[in-house]
Amino acid sequence: xxxxxxxxxxxxxxxxxxxxxxxxxxxxxxxxxxxxxxxxxxxxxxxxxxxxxxxxxxxxxxxxxxxxxxxxxxxxxxxxxxxxxxxxxxxxxxxxxxxxxxxxxxxxxxxxxxxxxxxxxxxxxxxxxxxxxxxxxxxxxxxxxxxxxxxxxxxxxxxxxxxxxxxxxxxxxxxxxxxxxxxxxxxxxxxxxxxxxxxxxxxxxxxxxxxxxxxxxxxxxxxxxxxxxxxxxxxxxxxxxxxxxxxxxxxxxxxxxxxxxxxxxxxxxxxxxxxxxxxxxxxxxxxxxxxxxxxxx
Length: 297
Prior knowledge:
It is a single chain. With 297 residues, the chain is α+β, with helices and mostly antiparallel strands. The protein has two domains: 36-90; 117-274, Rod shape-determining protein MreC, domain 2 (Thrombin, subunit H), CATH 2.40.10. The protein contains two helices and twelve strands; from the N terminus they run H-H-E-E-E-E-E-E-E-E-E-E-E-E. The strands form two sheets. A six-stranded antiparallel beta barrel has the order 1-2-5-4-3-12. Strands 6-7-8-11-10-9 form a six-stranded antiparallel barrel. A hairpin with a 2-residue loop joins strand 3 and strand 4. The model is unreliable at 282-297 (pLDDT under 50).
């Protein structure tokens, strides 16, 4: 009994549904261009759902679009970062090459301006003292090319002399070494003396010995090679007077000189392998013997 009533309910539901569908089709077929009351009612019922579904669809589409866009931007950003790193590396290399080219050009200019035979050398080793200053420099020129006592120069000024040549390299006795001695002159006053290195200091300083009081110097005065001894050409830059020590007694001044060369940044140097030619004496001039000042030992 229960089963038959359920069957009849299903038949009624299906029949009603078919009737409504047929009724809607008939009403719509009478005037397809106009909406019937039924159509408008149905639209009112389904419009909110359609709007909600459209909103959700637009949101999903926007999120998906932004995700794709962000993914593309991220990839482009990574590509730009790689390109930026590469360009930075290339710029660093170009700066290094430009700096190296500049050093070579200055070194060639010094060679052309030096009235003596020179060869180029590269610094291959540096030793530092406990005071963190360069105490010894080694260059890539050895026996058969250079020998003890040959001057070593840079475009900035005098570095020192070859101290020992062995094999394919040699040591340089620096201008600031206490064992060095170089005949120099202060061009402004004509005062002449022996430049010697000072030890035990956290810096690069020298002093001038035998600088007569009758030719007073002042701070900032340039100091250059005198050319006495024949090994060093004349008028090579050595340094500047940075301190005049008061209270000195006797015939000589007590001054301190800071070299023009930055010994901590030496890379390329020139070695004077043959002294400059002796200049012809001027007519009517008389040679006056020097004061017997020693040069670098």
